[in-house]
Amino acid sequence: MTAPKKVAASLTGLMENPLVLDTLNRESKIIDTANEAVGFWGYDLLNRKPSPAYNEYGLFQGTDLDLACFLYALADRGAVINIPRYKAMRQKKERLDQVITSQYNRHGKVIGVQANKEFFTFSINVIDENVVGEDKVGEFRTFSLTDLDGSWYPGWDRIEFVPTLKENRFITENKLWSSQRIVFKNMIHPNRWTSFFGQHYVISKMIIERLTDESKHLNAQIKAIQAAGISFPEGTGPSSYEYGESGDAKSVKVSSFQAEIFMPDSKYIGNYPNYKKTVKGLLDAYNTRLEYQRIIKKLRFMTRATEYAHSKAPDHIPAWIKGVKWEPGFKTSTRSRTVWERFPLFQDKVGEFSISLLKRWVEKSARVSADY
Q: Are β-strands 6-7 and 137-144 bridged in parallel, bridged antiparallel, or unpaired?
């Protein structure tokens, strides 16, 4: 006998959730809803209870505190870090108006974390003080901490920082120190897989899809306004730079984990707004798109971290779901050639496909440095 299906009310009630309804309405001003979703994922480092670096027998085991949580806290307070050794994973491409004073001891303020949408590469964003421009010191740079498959990237070995008094107390009281170091076993905590089946993940993925889709509309609006003869005022709009010769590169094949939320097209309503062909309309469209990209970046880090943890425990199902399993061979439409595994959550209306989690592995090409 087939076990009865059981799915948590937080999931089956998604179509009554105000955040979901706002996301599905293309005419809504989505930014407040999107920022609320970002708030789902805030790490509270100082309230975590990680395992100590050494077990009760004095043997080193490494803490189970994940580096993602720690770095998120450092970025949140704008900590200054130093990376003594770093080798770029990707093809080098330097601006002609900038000079890197040294490839060693890359240091500066941490301003964010990010995740690649195709691969399990997790990175930190730093205002790198080793980069000197024509009129300032320090420029945005990204440093990859995990490889394309989510394992530790060997191009670095440690990050140096000065903890605050509260951080130092947290590290000391939880016995995380190991010869003045904290050794992390995981970039992403393995138990994070449960979030893959939670409402916060589903809503966040829906918002990423909405913001990505509307960003395409905004980009088209910007081009149409510019085609009408409207230009950005001096000092606004996108910047352009000249670059020197790119470093040597090669292409590698990597397995890419992809996940989406299937929502029937009938659930979407309205149309994205059009912008007036004026300077104000141009700036409004441009600045809105920038804000969308900022939010996408934050949500993508959290959702990709969740997807990585699930990819390492693909058969695990949480206690709040019973009688549901992954189904192979699903296509989102009769015209689609892409095949997914589907995990149906609930059917909102008779005759419609269930609102579902989708996932698949696909081989992708990645451009990396020649000595990768």
A: unpaired
